[in-house]
């Protein structure tokens, strides 16, 4: 019964959410004014097959990550979001946990930056949402699960990403990430997922343990980064970390100086990459 109610709620909210309100073009003729399953899949980073099984009550026990992604994609209110968590058999996130809710203002900013690579992270550097240009530039993160979605974990324990680093730039990045994580643990001491993240990093990465135990401090600064794209080659971009007043959200934005070869290369990556992701 619970699985059926969860699926019915997802379908009901999907059918009431217009493409325009979700930042998507209206497109051609539609059977329903709401989102297609394919569009919800694109927005939430969840496969169409899994959404179908959820709506039909054939998939049970969705993870917190899946419920959060659906709530975000469907633009649910706080009350609706909490209700969806309960229908999924989960406790809604508590005030003393790292918030993963995107404010309407942040969501509208993302909707308008359709040609710019943008990703939003929470206070613990867990990826909440990445737009199609970001996925085209950095690699599609939709298949990442659990700790794979955490930038600190990926930096210390995961596979190499596409960003080219010098020893100095890697040290600065790791220092800033550890400092941010320490700040998050102080602000959200009751968050169990955050505690497990720090414990795993401390136990599995000597480098993380060294930085953590020294209490080193640092902060993110604007930087120029070179990304080695597998098809377009090297592209050098400005990477800025924007913060939202009254929120712990971190918005990562990649831009290129207009009129440069890097700008042309980024435009090519964005155009071809997003076509591949949507197709």
From TrEMBL:
Name by which UniProt lists this protein: Helix-turn-helix domain-containing protein
Annotated HTH cro/C1-type domain residues: 34-81
Gene3D superfamilies registered for this protein in UniProt: 3.30.450.180, lambda repressor-like DNA-binding domains
Region Disordered, residue ranges: 1-33
């Amino acid at each position: 019964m619970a699985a059926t109610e969860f699926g019915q709620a997802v379908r009901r909210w999907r059918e009431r959410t217009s493409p325009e309100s979700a930042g998507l073009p209206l497109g051609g003729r539609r059977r329903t004014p709401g989102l297609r399953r394919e569009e919800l899949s694109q927005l939430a980073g969840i496969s169409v097959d899994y959404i179908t099984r959820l709506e039909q009550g054939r998939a049970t026990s969705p993870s917190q990550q899946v419920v959060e992604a659906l709530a975000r994609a469907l633009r649910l209110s706080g009350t609706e979001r909490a209700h969806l968590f309960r229908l999924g058999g989960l406790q809604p996130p508590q005030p003393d946990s790292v918030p993963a809710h995107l404010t309407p203002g942040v969501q509208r900013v993302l909707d308008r930056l359709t040609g710019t690579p943008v990703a939003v992270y929470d206070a613990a550097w867990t990826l909440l949402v990445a737009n199609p240009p970001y996925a085209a530039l950095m690699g599609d993160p939709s298949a990442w699960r659990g700790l794979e979605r955490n930038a600190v974990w990926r930096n210390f324990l995961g596979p190499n990403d596409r960003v080219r680093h010098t020893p100095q730039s890697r040290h600065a990045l790791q220092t800033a990430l550890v400092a941010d994580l320490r700040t998050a643990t102080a602000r959200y001491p009751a968050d169990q997922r955050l505690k497990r993240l720090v414990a795993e990093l401390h136990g599995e990465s000597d480098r993380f343990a060294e930085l953590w135990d020294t209490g080193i401090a640092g902060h993110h600064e604007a930087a120029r980064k070179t990304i080695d794209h597998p098809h377009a080659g090297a592209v050098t971009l400005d990477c800025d970390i924007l913060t939202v007043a009254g929120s712990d959200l971190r918005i990562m934005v990649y831009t290129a100086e207009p009129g440069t070869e890097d700008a042309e290369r980024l435009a090519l990556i964005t155009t071809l990459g997003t076509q591949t992701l949507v197709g």
